[in-house]
Amino acid sequence: MAILSMILTLMLGCYNEPMAENTQMDGQADIAVVGLAVMGQNLILNMDDHGFTVVAFNRTVSKVDDFLQNQAKDTKVIGAHSVEDMIARLERPRRVMLMVKAGEAVDQTIEHVLPHLEAGDIIIDGGNSLFTDTERRLKAVGEKGILYIGTGVSGGEEGARHGPSIMPGGSAEAWPHVKDIFQSIAAKAPDGQPCCDWVGEGGAGHYVKMVHNGIEYGDMQLIAEAYQLLGAFPNLSAEAMSEIFADWNKGELDSYLIQITSEILAFKDEDGQPLVDKILDAAGQKGTGKWTVQNAAELGQPLSLITEAVFARSLSALKDERVAATKVLKGPDGSEPHMTVDDIGQALYAAKIVSYAQGFMLMRAAAAEYGWKLNYGGVAQMWRGGCIIRSRFLGNIKEAFDKDSGLTNLLLAPFFIEAIVSHGNAWRRVVSDSMMNGFPIPAMSSALNFYDGYRSEKLPANLLQAQRDYFGAHTYERIDKPRGEFFHTNWTGHGGTTSSSSYNA
């Protein structure tokens, strides 16, 4: 009988599904990652490099086996073929990181995972979720005793693999349980500090990532405008422009985006011609820039440069209309430009200061509105490495906030006051020459308009208020009366004395 039992056991075993490679005993993994697209895979490998045991899971389970047999071969990564299997392999408190597409997919994944978790376990959303969605999810899972982190992860494929910028927020009680993992895998700033720290409660982490992406839109548009001007004045080739950007990257403009711009301009197609010249001038966008602009409008913050950067992409998408318009809409006769290559670089730097100043203005307004305690020097620290907007410049921003944590605007910090003054004339030459010759530079010019508006003691808004009161009885304040005291005038003699409510940004 014993022999028969052994034979049956062996026969039945032949029908069992083969175990995935890299299996491990239950309850010994540090964290699970759900979603095996490029970012998810590279974060897993990054965690594995730093000694953490990771459970990999994907809704399409064949991707788990493919990952283990290829990219994760010879690692400690564990494959799971079900949510139950994934959860069973995790140490308590269980940490489950979602690397799935923002939106409905996040909600669906939470629904699948939540029934298998216990109070004190942690769900982490590492995608580009809208911060209000993060706050909604945090509240919903919190009612079941589950902790929630919404974290921005920036740096793209390379950053995820070798060190991204990580911006976590949400349930503060969860931070000690993920801090070691996140700070170990994060990029390191030049001083060795990790580009990751706790951002704040609620949706603060995803909010800071959203602003990061808005500034990224601004940076990219400013660089594109500089590229356009270099191609027109003095009509440089892509190869020559590549050398200029490489030179700029050795100085104050040192940044990831300047670096890759130089590399892009130097890249040749199969026929030996610059590939960039063959790419259609119609830009796409995924929505985070738009979210930044929408939130700025809601909070009454003048995010003019980033708004122009978003709309510049929208305008570029109207390719066919622009081609048709070229045939009928005439530009200026043109004038001899006075700008130099150095002027263009200085204008780029000055406008970049405004872009970041506007981004930090928005975060300060959001902190006041949503009750967050943001460390602005800490945010700059998180962006110094790993992320798309990483640059030498962020070290100056960190220093500015370290010296004055109550700084209301970066433009008022001594370093940036001096920088704008020293670059201002070049900036104005570039904007003037561009306007006179019909070259659109919406980001550079809006940045200059913002700067001049911000430094103006008096703006023509007094007339706007009079107009609003004339046609809508929206009231106005007087310079000879205390702030907060509102007045209405019967401008025509036919109106009444009843005033309307007023929205003040």
Could you characterize the architecture of this molecule?
This protein is an alpha/beta fold. Helix content is 51%, strand content 6%. It contains 20 helices and seven strands. Strands 3-2-1-4-5-6-7 form a seven-stranded mixed beta sheet, with helices on both faces. Helix 5 links the parallel strand 4 and strand 5. Helix 9 packs antiparallel against helix 15, helix 10 runs antiparallel to helix 11 and helix 15 packs across helix 18. The longest helix has 30 residues. It is globular.
Compact description:
With 505 residues, the protein is α/β, with parallel strands linked by helices.
* Portion of residues within helices: 40-55%
Secondary-structure element sequence? Answer: HEHEHEHEHEHEHEHHHHHHHHHHHHH
Unreliable spans: 1-25
Strand content: 5-15%
Total DSSP helices: 20
Strand order of the largest sheet: 3-2-1-4-5-6-7
**DSSP, total strands:** 7
Can you summarize the main beta sheet? 7 strands, mixed
Overall residue-averaged pLDDT value: 92
Structural class: alpha/beta
Q: Whole-number radius of gyration?
A: 27 Å
Give the N-terminus to C-terminus distance in angstroms: 86 Å
Shape label: globular
List keywords for this structure.
alpha/beta, seven-stranded mixed β-sheet, 7 strands, 6% strand, disordered N terminus
Please write out the topology:
Layout: H1 2-13, E1 31-34, H2 38-49, E2 54-57, H3 62-69, E3 78-79, H4 83-88, E4 95-98, H5 104-113, E5 122-125, H6 131-142, E6 147-154, H7 156-162, E7 165-170, H8 175-185, H9 204-232, H10 238-248, H11 256-266, H12 288-299, H13 304-316, H14 319-326, H15 341-370, H16 376-382, H17 393-403, H18 414-436, H19 442-454, H20 461-472
Helix pairs in contact: 2-7, 9-12, 9-13, 9-15, 10-11, 13-19, 15-18, 15-19, 16-17
